[in-house]
């Protein structure tokens, strides 16, 4: 995501490196490259032009402090303008109705059904809502089945009407059932087409009129670039939706949709999809996205993800075990599970400032802990709790059971013991992340 744009922007800022001050000449040269970078990322031409003109005006109006280099000042100005371009601040969805009704719209293949499941999971687990999913795509049987599978996966009921071809009736009956059964949020998935057509627009407009939703979200595949922006404009002209959801931002996308869509339709981006898993949905924060585009990482989101998996009581118990040198392979296994719940390793690494460029061409395996887990699972309960009993014959058995070599088993145990000693000396769990990183690489050296 945004890798090429980030690189090109970085190169454009270097044109100011070594310059004593910001002048009309060096700013013009820099912004020419910035505009080119934006257009290459499939940003709307008018948006890119207005953006660079605004940056130029602000840059030339700055009194650069002696402590701040022109290059640094330009980065700050571009960051602030990118943030404004994408909306300035995050905007939440409206869930205050009784029940609140959210209508999901978009083209076929944009990810509407998957997003509906993700949104239901988010409001259920993080906002204590009791949602009902509605299968309103009457033309694609697979969509109904897909929503039912997702609903079962996340523990959310799905309203269907077998054999019905009337999406308006389905939506109305679903809202009625939600009132009767005490669901406080209704998420209506709708049909899409491969392209915008009048029949689809009339249908979803009729659904909107029938259920009067509190929130209409337009879902768009960010990998379609400028086409995504054009489609958003057509939908907005007919539906006047409340917000945009960008899916597949974890793919090979140039980022043009994220940067253009707000300025073209004047509606906020509310969520971004970052993967296939049901928890791979993030609230959109313009400032954090600007950070990532400019290679600054996104520490705030990283910390938030960690906090979601953080259990204060477990942490205290772990701290006590570390202090007593009782940290075991079972404890380590528990920590691995928490890290895996936070998302893909490449996405997490990209949130660390300066890491985006460093990991660009690296192939991150989300099963990086697979060999480590296999080794630990091949241990007996006693061996996991008391690694001191792991003699030669036991290690040989563990290697055979885990499909690894005796050398890999020995390496893991040595790393574990060395780090446990350091952790005890420090009396802290600060080396835990380093321990896990080392172990995840241990079997692949």
Topology of this structure?
Blueprint: H1 3-13, H2 24-40, H3 45-60, H4 70-85, E1 100-105, H5 112-126, E2 131-136, H6 141-154, E3 158-159, H7 167-181, E4 185-190, H8 198-211, E5 215-221, H9 226-239, E6 243-247, H10 256-265, E7 269-273, E8 281-283, H11 286-293, H12 299-309, H13 312-323, H14 329-341, H15 345-350, H16 355-358, H17 370-377, H18 381-385, H19 392-402, H20 406-426, H21 432-442
Parallel strand pairs: 1-4, 1-5, 2-3, 2-4, 5-6, 6-7
Antiparallel strand pairs: 7-8
Helix pairs in contact: 1-2, 2-3, 3-4, 4-11, 5-6, 7-8, 9-10, 17-19, 19-20, 20-21
List keywords for this structure.
21 helices; 445 residues; disordered C terminus; eight-stranded mixed β-sheet; alpha/beta; 434 Repressor (Amino-terminal Domain)
Counting DSSP H or I runs of 4 or more residues, the number of helices is 21
Oligomeric organization of the protein chains: single chain
Rounded radius of gyration (Å): 26 Å
Head-to-tail CA distance between termini: 28 Å
Biggest sheet, spatial arrangement of strands: 3-2-4-1-5-6-7-8
Corresponding CATH superfamily of the largest domain: P-loop containing nucleotide triphosphate hydrolases
Order of helices and strands: HHHHEHEHEHEHEHEHEEHHHHHHHHHHH
CATH topology of the largest domain: Rossmann fold
Q: What is the share of helical residues?
A: 55-70%
* Mean pLDDT score: 78
Low-confidence segments: 428-437, 439-445
